[in-house]
Amino acid sequence: MRYQPDRMDLTLLALIALAGTTMALTGAAHGLPLANGTVLAIAAIKGRRILLDYLDLRTAPPIWRGLITAWLMLIVGFAWSVSAVSVLLS
Question: Residues of 42-65 as b/e, b for ≥16 C-beta within 10 angstroms?
């Protein structure tokens, strides 16, 4: 019998790879505006994967997926705007 990875396994592998990418970016390009935006984009991707697969919103009604995704994008957008303002002021 062959092992078939399910969605949770694939999500876990994707989260590990994205966490490694985040660590590499923050270590190599500390303080660069493009790196900050990239790290926030990766955080949004990781958050979306966690919401859909680990909190089981993939099978939820579309309104809930939309509301929770909008909330996540609001948080990431706020973090990006704070980062952009700090870059502009320095």
Answer: bbbebbbbebbbeeebeeeeeeeb
The whole-model pTM stands at 0.84
Please state the length of the chain. Answer: 90
Mean pLDDT, residues 35-54 taken together: 92
pLDDT in tens, 14-42: 999 999 999 998 887 776 778 888 999 99
* Structure token pair of residue 14: 């994707």
Contact between 76 and 37 under an 8 Å Cβ cutoff? The reply is no
Question: Looking up tokens 């190599």, which residue turns up?
Answer: 28
Pull the structure tokens for residue 62: 């579309």
Residue 22's CB is within 10 A of a number of other CB atoms, namely 17
